[in-house]
Prior knowledge:
Organism: Amycolatopsis australiensis
Mean pLDDT: 90
Largest sheet: 2 strands, antiparallel
Order of helices and strands: HHEEHHHH
Distance between the termini: 55 Å
Structural class: mainly alpha
CATH class of the largest domain: Mainly Alpha
Strand content: under 5%
Domain HTH merR-type: 1-68
Number of helices: 6
GO molecular function: DNA binding; DNA-binding transcription factor activity
Number of domains: 2
Protein name: DNA-binding transcriptional regulator, MerR family
InterPro entries: DNA-bd_dom_put_sf (IPR009061), MerR-type_HTH_dom (IPR000551), MerR_fam (IPR047057)
Amino acid sequence: MKSIGEVAARFGLPAHVLRHWEAEGLLSPARAGDRRRYTDADVDRVAAILVAKEAGFGLADIRTMLAAPARDRAAVTARHRDRLRLRIARAQAALAMLEGDCPHDDLMTCPKFRNVLAGRLRESAP
């Protein structure tokens, strides 16, 4: 069993992050009096939370993935995968726009930038 300080130090986190995750229902360490005691399974869960956060998941989705049946986890990951693909496409479009040598002094007159704007306007159309 490890203390909150030991677990926090292992992952380079402030202890209040672990307490927050506990309040959010992501962790439930045992108690010894008023002290939190983390098992190896709890430490694994902290690592899983960090991996999910690095992948861009929010705490609510992480909670669902850690606690829900497999079919619910699959739905969460599918939604996230779709959002991630959209973000990647937008980032690639932005990079392509920036990599070109645009002779336009005004960004708003650049054809590449205008195409990016047109795409965003289409996506947001009612």
